[in-house]
Design a protein that fits this description.
Coagulation Factor XIII, Chain A, domain 1; 13% helix; 6-stranded mixed beta sheet
Length: 195
């Protein structure tokens, strides 16, 4: 009997460090218009790797554009586990039809509601080729929408509506960034749109 108690205590002592060392894989992603992560999670796009089960986990270093993920890894937040999100698939990502000047609503779904600094939305520049990986040079330098959040926690779902810039044609990409207030990270989402 005593041997069982000792073994149970040892097992519990060993399990605690492992349980606390495993990071929580719950955060947030854009569901509408469907982000690349959402398309993978829904099975709309195949060969997505781990992102299929973790659309909420596209987390990387914050500080974009001066810091943050390297060019060519923006859609995956610099996380090599989700590199399939950076693959332009020859311009073949499903896209949402939009028009210049249209009001478009972006909806986030959160599985962990972090204290938030802001949300920012960038659009690719005129002439962007959807068959190339996303880089800073492909994006307008200024976001077309910034939503300050002043350290508050978002609700389980949150929507932002913006007027899309003019001067775009064809397949473009929106990069959405959710800047976390109390960590060194942000969450990155790419949405494909066709003007």
């Amino acid at each position: 009997m005593r041997k069982r108690h000792v073994l149970a205590a040892v097992a519990a002592a060993v399990a605690v460090p492992f349980a606390t060392a495993i990071p929580a894989h719950s955060h947030g992603w854009v569901t509408t218009p469907p982000s690349r992560a959402a398309l993978c999670a829904a099975g709309t796009v195949a060969n997505c790797g781990d992102i299929r089960w973790e659309p909420q986990s596209v987390e990387g270093p914050k500080g974009f554009p001066s810091r943050g993920p390297a060019d060519g890894t923006l859609c995956a937040g610099g996380n090599s586990r989700f590199a399939q999100l950076d693959d332009p698939r020859g311009g073949g990502w499903p896209s949402t039809k939009v028009s210049a000047g249209q009001r478009l609503t972006f909806t986030w779904k959160f599985t962990a509601r972090h204290a938030t600094t802001q949300f920012r939305y960038y659009l690719t520049r005129p002439g962007y080729s959807a068959s190339t990986k996303l880089t800073r040079a492909n994006l307008d330098a200024t976001p077309f929408l910034t939503v300050p959040y002043n350290g508050a926690q978002p609700p389980a779902t949150l929507s932002h509506t913006a007027t899309l810039p003019s001067g775009r044609t064809g397949h473009q990409v929106v990069l959405a960034i959710w800047d976390i207030a109390d960590t060194g990270n942000a969450f990155y989402q790419c949405m494909d749109v066709t003007f």
